[in-house]
Amino acid sequence: MKPTSRAVRALVRGGRTTGQPLPHHPAEYEIHDPGEIGDLLAAWPRDTGSGGPLVCACSGHEGFVTLYEASGQSVRTLPLSRAEPLAHLLGPTAEGIPARHRARWARAAPGPLRAYAEAVARGKDPGRPAVPLALVFTWLGTRREHEADAASVLAVEAPMRLLADEPTADLAWAVRETDRGGLDGAVRFFAGDAFTTRHPKRRRVPDTARDLLLRYARSHRPADLAVLERRLLRAPDDRVRRS
Fold first, then answer.
1. Which of 58, 116, 192, 229 is the most exposed place for a label (fewest CB within 10 A)?
2. DSSP 204
3. pLDDT 10s digits, 78-130
4. CA dist., res. 71 & res. 36, Å (int)
5. Per-residue b/e over 27-43, b at no fewer than 16 CB within 10 Å?
6. Residue 192: phi, psi to the nearest 5?
């Protein structure tokens, strides 16, 4: 039995196999699909030495792919510089695993955002979609089976980019307009670096939106509550939306 045959998960981190990665290609992602794991096992080189991590990727110039068994124990690690047999699986090409994840991510986007997602998945510049910010919160809040696979990484990073430069007043109004799933995405955004690193003047959130975020976090995302309480600064509530 090959020592890699116990693998049920793969972690791909840093570096690249061949060629330049597509824009927004995940720097780190996981593979869980049994068929994709099987593809990796079939292509895995036989002379890579004993299992366990072999490479430090601290420099950012080298990466690796590590296989894990069900217990969480790593069973084999391969530097990406020696992963030529896996390049067609790990690379951001039409037949690669990340490309398959990109296509799945694009199909899962809300209808009005699907063209935008499909353009990003092909490595194109899609421009900014003309969609309500409330829908972007819903996209960000969508539940996913594996939060760390390539599709899910993109599904978080893409809406985060769309929200990052929006004025706080517009974001706060979108909190009022979004659905339950969107509140989950809104809490995720307001508790993240894209918002919490803003200048304090840009972190003033009207009371109605602030209360919605804190109430949702208290019930459904308690790990984010302390950050929100510190970072969401109060602003007078404005119940009339500016045109």
1. 58
2. E
3. 887 777 788 788 877 667 888 888 888 888 899 999 999 988 888 787 888 99
4. 19
5. eebbbebeebbebbbee
6. -95, 170
